From TrEMBL, chain A:
<keyword id="KW-0813">Transport</keyword>
<keyword id="KW-1003">Cell membrane</keyword>
<dbReference type="InterPro" id="IPR050763">
    <property type="entry name" value="ABC_transporter_ATP-binding"/>
</dbReference>
<feature type="domain" description="ABC transporter">
    <location>
        <begin position="7"/>
        <end position="237"/>
    </location>
</feature>
<keyword id="KW-0046">Antibiotic resistance</keyword>
<protein>
    <submittedName>
        <fullName>ATP-binding cassette domain-containing protein</fullName>
    </submittedName>
</protein>
<keyword id="KW-0547">Nucleotide-binding</keyword>
<dbReference type="InterPro" id="IPR005894">
    <property type="entry name" value="DrrA"/>
</dbReference>
<comment type="similarity">
    <text>Belongs to the ABC transporter superfamily. Drug exporter-1 (DrugE1) (TC 3.A.1.105) family.</text>
</comment>
From TrEMBL, chain B:
<feature type="transmembrane region" description="Helical">
    <location>
        <begin position="190"/>
        <end position="207"/>
    </location>
</feature>
<feature type="domain" description="ABC transmembrane type-2">
    <location>
        <begin position="42"/>
        <end position="279"/>
    </location>
</feature>
<feature type="transmembrane region" description="Helical">
    <location>
        <begin position="254"/>
        <end position="276"/>
    </location>
</feature>
<protein>
    <recommendedName>
        <fullName>Transport permease protein</fullName>
    </recommendedName>
</protein>
<dbReference type="InterPro" id="IPR013525">
    <property type="entry name" value="ABC2_TM"/>
</dbReference>
<dbReference type="InterPro" id="IPR051784">
    <property type="entry name" value="Nod_factor_ABC_transporter"/>
</dbReference>
<keyword id="KW-0472">Membrane</keyword>
<keyword id="KW-0046">Antibiotic resistance</keyword>
<dbReference type="InterPro" id="IPR000412">
    <property type="entry name" value="ABC_2_transport"/>
</dbReference>
Length: 332, 282
């Protein structure tokens, strides 16, 4: 067993009746790293997480969490991980502190430990003032934070977060990201599902893109952007009268230049950093003054569109059998 | 994050996760359910205000129009019926609590913890029994106020209370089945009202079955609730034995109450567990 991997998915398949919700999903998450499981609604993210957290039995394949097999030793898996589900699953009629007590007690922690850990978590998630209030009165952001705090009562080494920031306002989202960064700095392994490319880009070391139940790409955010292959070189000249000369030089270097006259900007498809060096050398000492020279990488949004043919925030649709996009493994 | 090398991470203290018993887990969930009742005392309406209203309504409004053969009068006779109805509604409480927990993802959260999933159901059952117990106490006190008395021996009286709790236990399984099948609390309300009310009224709970037409009488007397109601009435000394022409269950009400609860449990419990497992394993 790969003990340096905190999470392993091995050929996970889940079929609901005629529908193949998850089809042969495999990946590994190294200890202490963050994997982003990225995909639109209905792509199979939640089902994958449910299989990895023992909530749903895989039709085929298996998963290992902290070295424990979800089928052979589900109890050990449950002792090693925390799960924050898609909807904030805290008890609305309990106070924040009582929610922490409930889960701590079910984990078998003694009362003193629960009290100590609870106060630490409430402090860390800025919930101390609200701790004695019934959760029904909490805002969406507070619920999410409490939900995460509850998942951390037993300080599990592996944490699964299913769309942790869905429905949060931008500020709460950034606050939650900070907390997640801290957790990872403390050595926690994180698997998070998200529909937000920005979130995957911000948090994940590694991204698995899933669409219609299958993995369509896997790599670091940078690799995914590179694989999309549409990086552009952008040159902005200082004076409009230099533009024509500049275009000539870029074309002279063998690049296909597009000109945006009002912006005094030339855009050209580029392979990578060496194109920048080449162009920089051409302009160096040419007398053409340059405002800006850079490589514009595609955003993960572009990557997603490129891989799936639809945007990340669109639903995958129900036609799972109709696989038009071919898998593009871009693992380096 | 990737630039943080594993060696520079500070180790954090992970508290020890002890193995806990099913009992500890169930009691924890039970205590959580009790907090719910504390926060929403209106959850107890069905075992407090509602049966008291029924007692008053039937004792003083309809009671005059219902003739019973019991020598001690309608009010005394009525109480066993209201008790039977209230305890049958124990299934309601279980179903609503369970559906709400499944619907809100609480059950999923519990199942992601290192606990026996049965604790969710055992904890729910414990709160249901508590709920029913409160109802039995409230109704006994209300009964005493309107003139109900226990006229049998202490042992018989206790046996009657025992039968009520046994019945409540069987109803828990019905509640688990309905709670696991329904998608929302509103659906549970709909199903339970349209089944439990006719079921409890089509019995000897409020009016004697002797006065019903032959078909209706057969249905009422074979209704499991009637055996329970007849049993507690006899054990409390609130009525004499059923007339000779009554159907078999009323001739041997205690035996039939036990048989009914065993049969209901034997049929419903495995089904309820299966439906619960299927629903939560999705």
């Amino acid at each position: 067993m790969g003990h340096d991997h905190a999470i392993e998915a091995v050929g996970l398949v889940k079929r609901f009746g005629d529908t193949l919700a998850v089809d042969d999903v495999s990946f590994e998450v190294p200890r202490g790293s963050v994997l982003g499981l990225l995909g639109p609604n209905g792509a199979g993210k939640t089902t994958t997480v449910r299989m990895m957290t023992t909530l749903t039995r895989p039709t085929r394949g298996t998963a290992r969490v902290a070295g424990h097999d979800v089928l052979e030793d589900p109890a050990a898996v449950r002792r090693s991980m925390g799960l924050t589900g898609q909807s904030a699953t805290v008890d609305e009629l309990l106070t924040g502190r009582e929610n922490l007590w409930l889960i701590g007690s079910l984990y078998g922690l003694d009362r003193r430990t629960i009290d100590r850990v609870s106060e630490e978590l409430l402090e860390r998630f800025s919930l101390t003032d609200a701790a004695g209030r019934v959760v029904k009165t909490y805002s969406g952001g507070m619920r999410r934070r409490l939900d995460l705090a509850v998942s951390l009562v037993a300080t599990p080494p592996v944490l699964f977060l299913d769309e942790p920031t869905t429905g949060l306002d931008p500020r709460s989202r950034v606050e939650l990201w900070d907390v997640l960064h801290d957790l990872v700095d403390d050595g926690t392994t994180l698997l998070l599902t998200t529909q937000y490319l920005e979130e995957a880009d911000q948090l994940a070391d590694d991204i698995v893109v899933i669409d219609r139940g299958t993995i369509i790409a896997h790599g670091t955010p940078m690799q995914l952007k590179d694989a999309s292959g549409k990086a552009s070189l952008v040159v902005t000249v200082s004076r409009a009268e230099d533009l024509a000369a500049a275009v000539e030089r870029v074309r002279g270097a063998g690049l296909e230049a597009h000109v945006d006259e009002p912006a005094r900007r030339i855009t050209a498809p580029a392979e990578g950093l060496h194109d920048i060096t080449r162009i920089a050398a051409i302009f160096d000492g040419s007398g053409i003054e340059i405002d800006d020279l850079g490589l514009q990488r595609p955003s993960l949004d572009d990557v997603f569109l490129n891989l799936t043919g639809h945007r990340a925030d669109e639903d995958a649709g129900a036609d799972i059998e109709d696989q038009s996009s071919s898998p593009a493994e871009v693992r380096a | 994050m990737s630039q943080t090398s594993p060696t520079t991470r500070r180790a954090i203290e992970r508290p020890e996760i002890r193995h806990t018993s099913l009992w500890h887990q169930s009691v924890t969930i039970f205590r959580r359910n009790l907090i719910h009742i504390k926060r929403m005392p209106e959850m107890l309406l069905d075992v407090t205000i509602q049966p008291v209203m029924f007692v008053l309504l039937f004792a003083y409004v309809f009671g005059g129009a219902i003739a019973v053969a019991a020598p001690t009068g309608y009010r005394e006779w009525l109480l066993g019926g209201i008790m039977g109805q209230t305890i049958a509604f124990a299934s309601f409480v279980v179903a609503i609590g369970l559906t709400a927990d499944i619907d809100k993802g609480i059950v999923d959260r519990f199942r992601s913890l290192p606990i026996n999933p049965a604790a969710i159901l055992v904890g729910r059952s414990m709160s249901s029994i508590t709920h029913s117990f409160i109802g039995i106490v409230v109704m006994s006190l209300t009964g005493l106020i309107v003139g109900w008395r226990i006229r049998g021996s202490v042992l018989d009286a206790l046996a009657a209370y025992g039968l009520l709790l046994l019945w409540g236990f069987a109803m828990i399984w019905v509640g688990i089945l309905v709670g696991s099948s329904m998608r929302s609390v509103e659906a549970v309300n709909g199903v339970m009202f349209t089944t439990m009310f006719p079921l409890t009224f089509l019995s000897n709970a409020f009016a004697p079955s002797e006065a019903m037409g032959p078909v209706l009488r057969a249905i009422a007397e074979w209704n499991p609730i009637s055996a329970l109601v007849q049993a507690v009435r006899e054990l409390w000394g609130n009525t004499g034995p059923a007339p000779a022409d009554a159907h078999l269950p009323l001739q041997h009400p205690v035996l039939f109450t036990v048989l009914w609860t065993v049969a209901i449990t034997a049929v419903v419990a495995p089904l309820a567990l299966k439906v619960f497992r299927n629903r939560t394993m999705q």
